[in-house]
Amino acid sequence: MKFIKLFSAGQDFIILSDSSDIDSLNTEDIIMLCDRQKGIGAQGILSFYQKNAKTSQIRGFLQNGEVMQDFSTASVCAAFALFSEKRLTHQEFSAENHAFFTVSESFSEESGTIYCDMGKADFNLKYPAEERKTQLGNRILTLTAAQLHTLHTLHFSECKDKLNISYLGEKVSVNSLFQKKADLILAEEREDSIDIDYYGKAFTTPALSSFGFTALCACKTGRAEYDKEIKITHKSNEAYAVCKKDGNIMMRCEVREVFRGEI
Q1: What is the pTM of this model?
Q2: Which domains, ranges and CATH numbers included, belong to the chain?
Q3: Scanning 61, 190, 215, 261, which has its CA 20 to 30 A from the CA of 178?
């Protein structure tokens, strides 16, 4: 049984590569697989039945074994995106090339059926050489971790029309930022500020765009807002973020980590 575990927006789900595998799992199996101490660890298990080139039916179970009814979470949407980007009729995932997606605005949901037009993946994955094998009940779990290459995110705070970036409360020069080779600028909108995680780090820098940085917005809630591209421009020594909808600055992004494995 091959699977991918997708982490997104603080949520994680196990995605089965073969839709028939979910029928072979009983409630005890599901609970064990989702157990964070004994199993893989996840909020639920998902599987997809592809009806045609544009439509797939989602089936899912929560970590307690109950049938999933709500398909609106960001991770579920991301999982569907992972599945449907190439319209994979043979039910094989391509996590190597599709870890972080930008979900288009044409999104609707009816009774667990999601219609979604996908853009291209933004990053490739690289896998470490080591694999981890674990006894899972009477099965052997082989898990290979996949991480986005040189994934860097930044902490932002919005101040009027300026975008201020701090690094653990200290300012960092443009060169220092560039040396970190940050590949991605991710933002999460707050009531009065915009926060972006960078593994506990962040940066202050002017002229982000001079190094070609672009922040990509991703759907955070899975329903209300969809991706918009944030162009980082600069003027004098200040960095500006331009991404507006109805006059309001919208900056929403998320990190998605992918793990693949086989039981």
Answers
A1: 0.42
A2: 2-148+255-262 (3.10.310), 156-249 (no CATH)
A3: 190
